[in-house]
Amino acid sequence: MTTVSPTPAPVPTPTAPHTPPPAMRMRELVFGAACAAAVRAAARLKVADALDEEPAGVAELAAAVGAEPKPLQRLLRALSCYGVFTETEDGRFAHTPMSRLLREDDPHSLRYIALWCTEPWTWQAWPKLDDAVRSGGSIFHDLYGKGFFDYLHEDAHDSAHVFNRAMTTSSMQSALDVAELLDLTGVRVVADIGGGQGHVLASLLEKHPDVRGFLLDLPGVVAKADPRLREGGALAGRTGIVAGDVRESVPVEADMFIIKNILEWDDESTRRTLGNVVSAARPGTRVVVIENLVDDTPSMRFTTAMDLMLLLNVGGAKHTKESLCTRLADAGLAIGDIHPVNAYLHAFECTVPG
After folding, report:
1. Which tens digit of pLDDT belongs to each residue from 268-308?
2. Of residues 307, 283, 284, 285, the one with CA closest to residue 294
3. pTM of the shown model
4. How far apart are CA 129 and CA 136, in angstroms?
5. Lateral strand order in the sheet of 256-260
6. pLDDT score, position 7
7. SS3 state at 1
8. 28-37, pLDDT tens digit by residue?
9. Strands 256-260 and 189-193, how do they pair?
10. CA distance 250 to 193
């Protein structure tokens, strides 16, 4: 089937539903698993990829994705209630802005995020949320006999692949927002601490050709760094790739340290990571911490859901603005401006005092 065109043709949009009364809203909430399962099914079937710019009949779509027409119609009708696809008056289905996000070739694709958040282990973990609330810690070891990441890499290779693709997608998309936000005036060297595959660093180096950078993360992570940063890549000459654990040491010097989405596992890891950065930095060095927040954000439903998932799988937590400021101050950082990066992330501009 064809790819998404640069100027998509207008398609019907779903009529905005009336606000349901509390009893009906509660019924909808407790069937939330059905909605998540429907999104997962559409993502696995690649229905969005099969649907072109023009509305298509169910029989045509079913043939394209290898499904039975009647069950597929039921799936698409359920999703259209949430604005994922829309049904035309003649019974065909068309794209909506949300359904396009399930296409693998969409520049803002959320297909792997949708798959990750509905992986098989999640259906076993969510019913144990009350146990996690009682204990205040992860229930993962009780379910699977080992920690979350050990389980992923030892017992759930397909899920680990989905996780890696989801994190890569998310990082690549937010990296452009971070590069657009940060002012690197006076910065000669920037260090991406616990930076994963280095998408933020690569975006910054592309935008600022006079800046050099370091990427620091675990050996298995930096081994798969963004090709632009590795040997032979366009940015390799300005990049130092360092394998190490940020909780143990930060063996690089820089004018700006960036710490993005790694202060959510537990308080001890956060304390050690921030302490290592402060120890490695010169007085006056900028430290930019970028995190999802569970308050003061337009994406509360999303971030609070991620917060509960962290409680389940690793016993971690997303921060409030106050809790993160407290940890930054405890590490000895002077907190300056706090900027929204996008609807999901905030950047905390800090400096190492003289």
Report:
1. 889 999 999 999 999 999 999 999 999 877 888 999 999 99
2. 307
3. 0.85
4. 10
5. 239-243, 212-217, 189-193, 256-260, 286-291, 346-351, 334-340
6. 40
7. coil
8. 999 999 999 9
9. parallel
10. 8
